[in-house]
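#random but structural
TW: two for the price of one
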Amino acid sequence: MNSQRPVNLDLRTIKLPITAYTSILHRISGVLLFIGVAVLLYALDLSLASEEGFAQVKECLQSPLAKLVIWGLLSALLYHLVAGVRHLVMDMGVGETLEGGKRGSQIVIVVSAVLIVLLGVWVW
């Protein structure tokens, strides 16, 4: 093994391409959705259990923190959806080149940002 090869272990200095960022964000949004579904299912169960439970969930959802959490979960859902559509388009053979991948990642980020801002206006 060549011990003279360069080793860069400082993650702050590594320049990742935009496609890597969209891929990492797609995975993170999937994990957030997995956790968020558990929380939302618990709230659904509590709201369907009794009238008091429904009132409790309704009151909880009126708080700014709950609105922020809901906005975050819906933002993760929108980003995951847009990035997933990009993957489906790439599965059909569109945008498989290096330049096409970069363009697709840029489109995912722009479309997701616009939808997330519109979602924030709707939630708040």
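TW: number two ↓
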Amino acid sequence: MLTGKQKRFLRSKAHHLNPIFQVGKTGVNENMVEQIEDTLEKRELIKISILQNNFDDKHEVANEIASNTGAHVVQIIGNTIVLYKESTNNKEIQLP
């Protein structure tokens, strides 16, 4: 689990990022989860946007993605999810 201090640090790092993935009306699928996992390995910190035509609860979407990828939900703000997963090969972010 991430501490409050670590989440604050990651939120500040994620502020300037743009969402890379979009969850639409079809929801989260296996292909999307694989792509998110690959991207997390490369970047460690990403944003995902939930589109207006997705009627699932955003917390459920965030938890589903996080549990399937092994990532941590840093923040859910509006329709944007911030995820963090420590990279094994490309570690760049040093948590406080």
